Amino acid sequence: MRWRSSARSSTYAPCSPASGLPYALRRHDRPEGTAAHLEVLGPAGGRWSAAWRGGRWRLATPGDEPAARVSMDQDTFWRLATRGITVEEARRRSESSGDPEITTAMTTLLAVIAENGDSR
User: Fold this and answer.
1) 16/5 Cα distance (integer angstroms)
2) pLDDT by residue (tens digit) across 42-79?
3) What is the gyration radius of the CA atoms in the chain, in angstroms?
4) Rounded distance, CA 65 to CA 48, Å?
5) From residue 101, how far is each of 5, 36, 53, 120 by CA, in Å?
6) Most buried of 18, 39, 86, 108, CB within 10 angstroms?
7) In the structure, what pLDDT confidence band is assigned to residue 16 with cuts at 50, 70 and 90?
8) 0.70 cut: is pTM over it?
9) What is the arithmetic mean of pLDDT over 70-93?
10) Would you say residue 111 has pLDDT above 80?
């Protein structure tokens, strides 16, 4: 994963908001190899997958059949990731299947940009 940092503060942001998927799933331990897929539809979209490996969620190459899948259009994803809509609204606009705890966690992908409290 590539990270971009600001020279003026300790701000770190993943190159894509979807690369925060493992963080969104962090509280949901699953059997080794369990996968979750996120699909963002549209020209600026893509597909991301996280898998439970070695005791934590990691970005992964999409496998065969995930335990959970969430699909949303690019506008919904961007608004969710930047707090432009509520999590509840994003869930209404999305399609999901599989493990409900995982799909719920996947649609809380809000904290994609974080600061350490440095207000410079």
Assistant:
1) 14
2) 998 889 999 999 999 999 987 778 999 999 999 999 89
3) 14
4) 13
5) 32, 11, 18, 38
6) 18
7) low
8) yes
9) 92
10) no
- Which tokens belong to 102? 């995982």
Structure tokens at 19: 């690369």
The encoded tokens of residue 89 equal: 């609204």
Record the tokens describing residue 28, joined without a space. 């949901």
Please name the residue that has the structure tokens 């990691």: 58
Secondary structure (DSSP) of 41-106: ESTT-EEEEEEEETTEEEEE---SS-SEEEEEEHHHHHHHHTTSS-HHHHHHH-EEEE-HHHHHHH
